[in-house]
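Quick log. Single chain, no ligands specified.
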Amino acid sequence: MSFLFKGGRFLNPRLDTLQDGIEILVEGGKIREVSDHPIKSSSAQVIDLGGKVIMPGLIDCHIHVFLTEVNFAYLEDVPLTMLTAQAGMLMRNMLMRGYTTVRDTGGADAGIRDAVAHGLMLGPRLFVAGAPVSQTGGHGDFRKRTQSRFECKCCSALAFNARVADGVSDVIKAVRDELRKGADHIKIMCSGGVASQSDPLESVQYRLDEIEAACEEADRWGKYVSAHAYSAEAVRRAVSCGVRTIEHGNLMDEDTAALMAEKGAFLVPTLVAYDSMKRRGKDFGMTEYSLRKNKTVIEGGLRSLEMCRKAGVEIGFGTDLLGQLQNDQSREFLIRSEVLSPAEVIRSATITNARIVRQEGLLGELVPDAYADLIVVEGNPLQDLNLFQDEGAHIPFIMKEGVPVKNTL
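-> predicted structure:
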């Protein structure tokens, strides 16, 4: 089916102002034509936007559809069938907020990615890391201190969300295995984290040769490595060894930001995660240990964002919200607006994130031959980022790959 959009205002994320008089023709799931002159089509369904803003669908480059609980311990007794059902609900809600593409940075596998792609589940287009790879005692080692063995995946949903590998040969095997199973990129843990219960936040994880091994294996498959890292030292070690995207990076320093820019590494901050955990984490079982660590990272988030912006680091858009907190997803726009312009924030959630998932020209902008992933907004987001709030209430139309998934125009 084909669609012709007219009568709206066009938001091109490469520009800082809206364009009027632009018409867009969608055919076969892709953008066929974008013109400032009337487009003729005998078969297209005409959609008159009535002055509303049409723009690319949003991209979130750090989510976890299988981390359906704020307190990871609650996942130990969740069957995988229930986990998949919960993930389906979370993905549908993301799509209804205007996120037509997301990158899952640990947990989601090729199965759920392909289920969405084949129309068996309603959700954003998925790019997946499979199980993130952690050292023993690292951010992805979810065992209690009294446990020595890991639960199998059929017995614990938590076991689906990470795997442990130690030493170069074991890391190589783990990376190759995740690639074999269809991962779009590899996620490794290079520092302590907030939600994990066994590792100090400031801990530096994986040896240099282990990080290098992961990056080399991913690169040989034409893939890349993303790394969970908070401290300047953890970020520096990861980027020096070939990691392409740094997730979080809250405790960055200026020298490390400069190194990231030199190496062409992306930063994917997830500021809303800490804001949300501070406000609501305790209500959903977050431990006092995690809340104390959260207090440390929340104080450095905006500062690191400013450092990287000044250094010329490309900054993507991510949220990293757990389970019940995921309805805060679009608050990330408001938090970033304290140091970035609305145009810069929107750019991070569109064309920059398209570069991160290596889909330049296909996602993140409405140009000929791109996927027809688009949203219509009641107002000008370049002036008011609140239009992305309220669970998509100000987004009356959402299209993913040429198929309308929401239409209240």
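The chain has eleven helices and 20 strands.
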